Fold this sequence. Notes:
The structure is a homodimer.
Chain A: E1 2-3, E2 10-15, H1 19-25, H2 28-37, E3 44-45, H3 48-51, H4 54-59, E4 65-71, E5 76-82, E6 90-96, E7 100-107, E8 112-120, H5 130-136, H6 140-160, E9 166-173, H7 175-181, E10 202-205, E11 218-221, H8 231-240, E12 249-255, E13 259-265, E14 268-274, E15 295-302, E16 307-312, E17 320-321, H9 323-335, E18 354-357, E19 360-366, E20 377-380, H10 381-405, E21 412-418, H11 419-424, H12 427-433, H13 440-443, E22 444-448, H14 450-461, H15 464-473, E23 474-476, H16 483-491
Parallel strand pairs in A: 3-5, 6-9, 9-11, 12-21, 14-23, 15-17, 21-22
Antiparallel strand pairs in A: 1-2, 2-4, 4-5, 6-7, 7-8, 10-11, 12-13, 13-14, 15-16, 18-19, 19-20
Amino acid sequence: MCGRCLSEAVRVFKVENIKEHLEKSNFDSQALLKALSKHISEPVRIPLYVLRKLPNILRKKEYSFFVILGKKENEWKVLEIFNELPENVLGVAIDLGSTTIAFYVYDFLKNKLIKKFSIVNPQVKIGEDILTRLHFARKPENLKYINQITIEAINRELEAIDYKNIYYLSICGNTAMYQFLTNLPVDYLFIEPYTPVTNWYGVLEAKDLNLETHPLAKVFIFPCAGSFLGGDIIAGLYFSEIHKKEDGYYFYIDVGTNAEVILGNKDFLLTCAGAAGPALEGGIFDCGMQAEKGAIETVEIDILQKKIKYQTIGNELPTGICGSGVIDLVAQLFLNGLIFFDGKFSPVFFKERFKKVNDELAFIIAFPEETANKKEIYIKESEIKSFLKSKSAMFSMLYLLCKKTGIEFEDIKNFYIAGSFGNHIKVKSAVMLGMLPEIALERTIGLGNSAGKGALKFLKNANFSEIKDIMEKITYLELNVEPEFMKYFSGAQLIPNVNLEMFPLS
Amino acid sequence: MCGRCLSEAVRVFKVENIKEHLEKSNFDSQALLKALSKHISEPVRIPLYVLRKLPNILRKKEYSFFVILGKKENEWKVLEIFNELPENVLGVAIDLGSTTIAFYVYDFLKNKLIKKFSIVNPQVKIGEDILTRLHFARKPENLKYINQITIEAINRELEAIDYKNIYYLSICGNTAMYQFLTNLPVDYLFIEPYTPVTNWYGVLEAKDLNLETHPLAKVFIFPCAGSFLGGDIIAGLYFSEIHKKEDGYYFYIDVGTNAEVILGNKDFLLTCAGAAGPALEGGIFDCGMQAEKGAIETVEIDILQKKIKYQTIGNELPTGICGSGVIDLVAQLFLNGLIFFDGKFSPVFFKERFKKVNDELAFIIAFPEETANKKEIYIKESEIKSFLKSKSAMFSMLYLLCKKTGIEFEDIKNFYIAGSFGNHIKVKSAVMLGMLPEIALERTIGLGNSAGKGALKFLKNANFSEIKDIMEKITYLELNVEPEFMKYFSGAQLIPNVNLEMFPLS
């Protein structure tokens, strides 16, 4: 017998000639368990579905056959037996984001990622923001509806894969996404004290969630640590491996609708979350968009030449500006004297770039003739103010976590930034604006979709105790009961900061 | 919070005011687990079905509600939550016999058996004997059919109870019954080396067997120790508690289609099985029947008065003769010189009682005018011979087990006899015929349906490790590889026995 797959979530073995075990034990199941016991130390269970096939498959081809096993928390379950190995033995990691659902298809036989893609979360049609969806889902029939459209959207993608050979799913998402996915009442999720139904889903049966997979496929749902600290963050931390770091301290920063910031290492994970994100998320600004093709991601203003150079993702004609583009833009506006330290426009130069939008002053980044949809791309003064609030919240959270732990920014080994935001952010601009401390210039690492990558990591190593370890290390700091936070927050809304203690002018 | 039920299979708790736990943990599930942790040391899981109800039920009635938990091997599962306790919280123990299915309805709230009844196994219509059914079930569609009629028959009885409040089933039966119940292929069960698919079913979901119960009800299926040593024997041993006895040695004897004999105590359980049963089972003899109302169970012959006195179960008009009646009858025939020591008739006296049936001499026990169906009740010479084979097999098994272990019959503390046979057998007659050793006269205890009582015991104490302990202690002795057995067997076919070593005339 030999192992054919290196994953800790799904194992494939070839069992050869177990006639001897069969003669000794005189039970088909015992013979199989005996053969497997050489390779697996945890208990193994054989469900009825497999027992029904076992007697005949076991005796064919000179007692040689393939066994597929799936991991549960403290045991393995035999999921399938075959005389011939199927072409595919697949797992799918899913990052169930509120805007986008990302899929990672993993081939357990080849031990590699074979496909990744994403779709728009169908819940968007109910409401862009989560609060709208939560309100909608208060009626049980609406909850059921939102659950169904989510499952259907996922199933459409699974069906396009070889779904009968999907044996394991690993899913992460925020707390609301989880309760929509599993059809749990959300009534108490958006009223104080914001109580989720559960933090630990563990390993469920795909069929209990109506997911289209192999009939015995398992679904691991990453635990969540609180209503504001979802399973996507836990999956991201699991990917970042901060919780294993022995040297120094690390920041994990995730900017989405909210911003979640975690400071720690192998000894602790101190975390807080706040509304730092909105201004950096697509869809909030008039011309805002997600970090996808056509989004302006870097901006350079040459006031003497009266020129603006920008780069878009994919080098396509621009259709809007993404979060990292906004950071770059505001930094350039400030450096070129086009805004004051409080974010107000100074429309003395470059007048052709200013116009009124709904009675409000706005700065034009791209004129209609330059853009993909022939609509100008601009930023309003109120949008800049909104961004400055976001950047202030971000910096104040970093500062507060350091203060609480007595750690200096210099002691931070790395700033891990999650999401595509982390891949595109121009750290120099962020530092210049006082969004990140200066030390971040050299020490920032973009992780990409670390939540999705964490879910994918689970398909490879299924380390339940590591995930429980993360859960145990996490302490959540409630910002609204921290008076210092508001003090830091108001000062940090200016560029770069009014508080010299927080932001020494080095 | 207080426990409301003493069972180890199902527990009912009243949870009161868990607001405090909720405030500390801020997850509904965590609050419930915290409340339960005071009473339960094993891990507790809360399935989605319960999580979906939890947020609303938890907050009603000042945070007070009832929780029903069911035991799995190493953990408890929350099966239901209610604000008001239902009238019934039930379990059903089922002895799935090949002829009769016996039901025991247990009330977990009152901690008592509230109802017992039995039905005819619907498989009987396919064939009286198991071999016919096994042959029939070789075709997958026939297996499915036999599975369906079995499940349907059980469901009809469950539906007549408050089935939605049945939370636990405990089932025992022989190996063939198990594979029919769970729809497992029987192809290798009746060809050498008679390999069952599995020995350990563990705790299954009632819905996976299509049983009509509470949607989350658990089903424990007693393990079997071999194709000839089914879960009914394990359940019977579990009830008898031989495996715990510290003083001396014990026999457990079950006479059904086969006879199974176990010798042992807390240190070992040596077992063998053979075709000792048939002659004592209803349906084999022309006038044979099961030990039920109308069956002749004792016989007294007064050759001088030319009278036969008999007693029937329930004191009704006779309709046939059951196993224990046959033992009594043959003993009386021998004592009155109506048969020789080899079982042949000596039709010198009492001539009016002899007649030919299909060219064979037969003895009439009851004339047509005495019986319920106005048909005479008789025993043929070949039937007496067949009985003598059964009694010989029985005695030879007892003797062989003692020989193998070096134990004398005197060292046997008790002979436990399972089944209604054990309740009706006239031990004096059995000893006189050489079926049981003389010492059995004082030391025989009828256990009644010990298999069913073992299944019922599980609903009370759900002691998985005790059952595994039985499994580990059992050693199975194959009679057909024991040359001594055939030697004992031929000698013991005479009355009482030709082998003085085996049967000293004390």
